[in-house]
UniProtKB/TrEMBL annotation:
One of its GO terms (biological process) is vesicle-mediated transport. Belongs to the TVP23 family. One of its GO terms (cellular component) is Golgi membrane. The chain crosses the membrane at residues 120-140, 147-166. This is Golgi apparatus membrane protein TVP23 homolog. Pfam families: DUF846 (PF05832). Signal peptide: none annotated. The lineage of its organism: Eukaryota, Metazoa, Ecdysozoa, Arthropoda, Hexapoda. It is a multi-pass membrane protein. It comes from Papilio xuthus. Keywords: Membrane, Transmembrane, Transmembrane helix. It comes from the Eukaryota. It is found in: Membrane.
Length: 211
């Protein structure tokens, strides 16, 4: 299933959309894209680990700030452009039309999703913003305002990917449910109208004769 906004320039969601011979059971394998799963998790966790341990290796706030931002940026780009597209068949993106207006597009194609890869993708996608939210509370109550700025940037980047993929996943299901409801309503109206406005068949007259 591939859902997209009408009038939006289409870009192939999956580059390898054609299933090769002998690969029809990819959905039942343990991992189809092991390297993508690895980088999806390593970028997500490395930013958190560096944030926790940066004070042990360096007293420079600027160096720690830049390193965590680089890891967060790599994570944001990887999740948005690679891991979401290949692991769960989802993609969100933005384009500017000829009038200069910005449009957001959410696409879904989940007919070739591996279950194990999907679970790890959503686990990392949801867990990391929760961890950064915990760091935000620690900075807030500890009055660590310079670190709070870094945590807010992390929440913005990780939260943007979370919102985009949740919108892709559940938005596509809502569109499918809406189409199903519209089809059922149309069928009910057609059946009701045919029942109410159908002309009854004329009675048949039997010819009787006297012998």
């Amino acid at each position: 299933m591939n859902s997209a906004t009408p009038g939006v320039p289409q870009v192939p969601l999956l580059d390898d959309d054609t299933i090769a011979f002998g690969e029809e059971d990819n959905a039942n394998k343990q991992f189809v894209h092991p390297y993508i799963v690895f980088f999806h998790l390593i970028f997500r966790s490395s930013a958190i680990v560096v944030y926790i341990l940066c004070g042990w290796f360096s007293d420079s706030f600027i160096a720690s700030f830049v390193l965590v931002i680089l890891l967060l940026s790599a994570d944001f780009w990887t999740v948005k452009n690679i891991s979401g597209r290949l692991l769960v068949g989802l993609r969100w993106w933005n384009y500017v039309d000829d009038d200069g207006k910005s449009h957001w597009v959410f696409e879904s194609r989940q007919n070739r999703v591996n279950r194990n890869e999907s679970r790890l993708f959503w686990l990392g996608l949801i867990l990391c913003p929760l961890i950064w939210s915990g760091f935000f509370l620690i900075c807030l109550f500890g009055l660590k305002f310079k670190w709070m700025l870094l945590v807010l940037i992390a929440l913005t980047l990780t939260g943007s990917n979370l919102y985009g993929y949740v919108k892709c996943n559940f938005g596509a299901k809502e569109n499918l449910q809406t189409a199903t409801k519209d089809f059922l309503k149309q069928q009910l109206l057609q059946n009701a109208s045919s029942f109410m406005f159908s002309q009854p068949a004329p009675p048949t007259t039997a010819n009787t004769g006297v012998v």
